[in-house]
């Protein structure tokens, strides 16, 4: 009799279903961020980032306590090199947050979406420049389309799309540093260290802002204060969902899901906020989308080839 595949909550299919749900939740929440940050007005970008850092640390402390993961956190603190890498990563992440929040408050959501669309291309470029990796022909072609897209948008728009470039570069470098930190660092413990290193500066800025009457935390009612405090939850929940997805799904699936975020941001910018889209911008986005199709197809093909090679090696080793 042929054994039936497991179908319980611990079966591979159930794990992948939970991982897919978590991944969809993470990327959809990140994609909807442009609708959240304008609700925090009259707080400016710097004030919002200050609260985001402080309340994220509070949320992380709660999570470490609930999940009993303080041991992982203490292990990181006893490794100075790791703390240094995570501090640099935190600075890059803060830059990314600040520019993104600025874009949502100044009606440049489409520029932000462009940044996250070209992020995979920037990651490939960083692999060449900093890690001296050799690219496949399709990857070079994709990079060429990406560069062409930036040129077209720059010429047509009359200026560099600096928001998109800063977002892509900062997040690409952040991912590189997190990769160097190693997979042994838990997502919550690592993020706690990052926010902890930034909190003194963020808290000092918020206190100084309040002392000079420039802050909005205590001057615009209780609901506004709660909204600013919610930035911690809004930041940590997608991170936890992403971590769950990354543990349960193949990397190729996670890589495809990441495009949900800029797609949703682009839709919000064009359809909800009605941001201006001249022809040059459409052509630039079209070139980026072609580049991403090439990059994705090449990545899936390379992953399949590597998987077949590993299976063949395993059979020969028997």
Please summarize the sheet with the most strands.
none
Please, what is the oligomeric state? Answer: single chain
Terminal Cα separation, in Å? 27 Å
Which regions have little confidence, pLDDT < 50, spanning 5+ residues?
1-5
Strand proportion: under 5%
Number of strands: 0
Whole-angstrom Rg? 21 Å
SSE series: HHHHHHHHHHHHHH
State the helical fraction. over 70%
Shape: globular
- What structural class do the secondary elements suggest? mainly alpha
Tally of contiguous helical segments:
14
Mean pLDDT: 86
What does this structure look like?
The chain is mostly helical. The protein contains 14 helices and no strands. Helix 1 (12-31) runs parallel beside helix 13 (260-272), helix 3 crosses helix 11 and helix 7 (137-157) packs antiparallel against helix 14. Mean pLDDT is 86; it is low at 1-5.
Keywords:
318 residues, mainly alpha, 14 helices, 79% helix
Short description:
This protein is 79% helix and 0% strand. It has 318 residues and is mainly alpha-helical. α1 (12-31) runs parallel beside α13 and α3 (45-66) packs across α11.
Secondary structure elements and pairings:
Layout: H1 12-31, H2 33-36, H3 45-66, H4 70-77, H5 80-105, H6 109-129, H7 137-157, H8 162-181, H9 187-211, H10 222-229, H11 231-248, H12 251-257, H13 260-272, H14 279-316
Helix pairs in contact: 1-11, 1-13, 3-5, 3-9, 3-11, 4-9, 5-8, 5-9, 6-7, 6-8, 6-13, 6-14, 7-14
